[in-house]
Amino acid sequence: MNLTKLFAASLCLTAMAASAVELKSDSFESESFSGGWVGPQPSNIVAGTNGVAEANSPINTSDTKVLQLDTGAGTWTNQVGYSFDNTNTPALYIDMLVKFVPSETPPPLGDGVKLAIAVTNDLLVVTKAVGVGVNDWATTATTIDTSLWYRVTVKLEQDVVNYLYYASVTLNGNQPVSVGGEERFEIADSTFYGVLNSIGFQGTGFIDEVVVTTDNPLGGVTVFDITLSFAAGQLSVLVSGTGTNAAPVVPSGTTLDVIAKPFYQIAGTTATNNWTSGGEPNTNGTITVTAEADTEITFTAQPWTSTDPVGGTTSFANAPATNVAAWAIAKGVTELDDNIYNQYLLNIDDATDVPSLLIKSVAVTNTEVTVTVEADGVNFSTINGQVKLMVSPVLGGSSSNITAAVSGEFTATVQADIGTNKFVKAVVE
Q1: How far apart are CA 304 and CA 88, in angstroms?
Q2: How far is CA 177 from CA 149, 154, 213, 219, 359, in A?
Q3: Calpha distance 420→294 (Å, rounded)
Q4: How many CA atoms lie within 13 A of 411 on its CB side?
Q5: In 3-state terms, the chain is what percent helix, strand and coil (to 5)?
Q6: Exposed/middle/buried for 429, CB within 10 Å: 0-12, 13-18, 19+?
């Protein structure tokens, strides 16, 4: 079962009073487990980073390690023992960073589980009350990218008038999740008593910066959304340091790596921030995007504009970058190698066989030769190479190339002064 699941277990009554203090927290920056976590191994603290800006994280801490889950069928838990005492007890918040691994179907709910969160079919699923004493999974409309880290904040609270217990789920600090059409949904009724015994995780996935507290972690803090706009065929936008694709909407303060696709370069952005490295007109750059209101930031790219040689070790080394980019983008080429250089010269598809260059006629006036040439599918007016005449005074003797004047399209007329040479062959270089 590939699943990362949070659950709030075993709602039962005690008379413990609550105060606004931090009950549990763990950033997993230590090499060993601490803070009351128990359960099946292996659940490993591994080197890694979540890539979430500190302003948008549950804990302001260094970020060099994360918790990698692999609990099998068991559950990795931490005792909380928080009681709702029917007298407007403060709400309880479970705040954490999660990188989900999807399950094909919602997993079975164990005894006492009154809140669980998972991902199936790339959608968030959450448990909610569906009858007296009965909880079941509800599929939300919230799409989850399982390559990304999410801040998941769960609020648990009690309706002291009706003795009902409610939950709400917020992603990334400001994205409420609608569960069955409700952002505040029932998780238990008056047949249950109000103690959160423990939180736990089951299955596989990654966890970081877990906090259980009665202080509202989102209170008074507005994290603005930034909608990212870019042409996916021209740019990749990644959460910096993680190598994962950025979601279409990221919170303000996110650091991004912007990488142009092959044969493109960054052309610009509407972000007000300066690039911390790279940027236009480079092929990559790193930038922290911030906003003081919900906004859209656009990144643009363009084909290579330099006329300098491509360089490198292939046959393309001396070819002008702008010409190579135009051909490669038009033909869908993703990588340059020697095997497709002749296709580039003739401006034909890289998967097409190189046609023979045929001389259709030769006419000589004094020392000037006029040659007509054809090559199947080649328009000589748009080729990237140059038509040249290879000339020699004797058949089979040493030869030299003469740059010729060329006119025409699919049948090209080539003219050049060949001096005393007697033998002519047309080539494209």
Answers
A1: 63
A2: 16, 10, 20, 17, 71
A3: 75
A4: 6
A5: 5, 45, 45
A6: exposed
- For 251-299, the pLDDT digits (tens) are 888 889 999 999 999 999 998 777 989 999 999 999 988 887 888 999 9
Q: Does this model's pTM top 0.70?
A: no
Q: How far lies 182's CA from each of 128, 186, 328, 381, in Å?
A: 10, 9, 50, 64
Tokens of 269: 């952005």
What is the b/e burial string over 14-49, where b = at least 16 CB atoms within 10 angstroms of the residue's CB?
A: eeeebeeeebbbbbbeeeebeeebebeeebebeebb
Alpha-carbon gap, residue 101 to 115, rounded angstroms: 18
52-53-57 Cα angle (round to 5): 75
Task: Name residue 262's amino acid.
Answer: P
Rg (CA), the chain: 33
Q: How would you classify the pairing of strands 225-229 and 295-303?
A: parallel
CA–CA distance, 29 with 34 (Å, rounded to integer) = 10
In sign, the C-alpha dihedral spanning 177, 179, 184, 189 is negative
